[in-house]
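Deadline looming. Please check this record:
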Amino acid sequence: MKHLLYAAVALATAAAPIAASAQPGPERREDRRELREDRRELKEDRRDARRDGVITPREQRELARDRAEVRRSQAEVRYNRARAETWRNRSEWRGYRGARPGYWYAPGYGYHPVVRGYTWRRGAYVPRVYRTYYVQDPYYYGLRPAPRGYRWVYADGNFVLMALATGLIADVLLNAY
């Protein structure tokens, strides 16, 4: 019984940082919630403007202003390699110390040597060494949700949509991060 208790404590201690890094922080969730609310309000405003069949110039200006606000909010929430504030304080980027020749950085997994001579293309297979570098938050990078049975993985600075069962590449976004 004592050994079982020790094993459970050791497992909880080892798994806690992994679980914490996979979940976005509370401020990130709040930002997403606000973005969803802004989108919902814009949709309602569009519906209200079209209800009477005529959209006045004033309503068009208001809708354009609201649409621009939603786009700005979206840009603030998503990853942008040119703006360090979008990635610097995220847990998966803590180990990043700049570009290193011959290595690529997988956020949350660290630096790994580049596999020479491999080209990422649809219909090919992801090498086994890359199959565990899952993208933890696809929305953050502007990726569409992966269909059932697929996962986005990091691969040499690219995003690869891979079939979990076989490793078959369904889509590739080159130099995406």
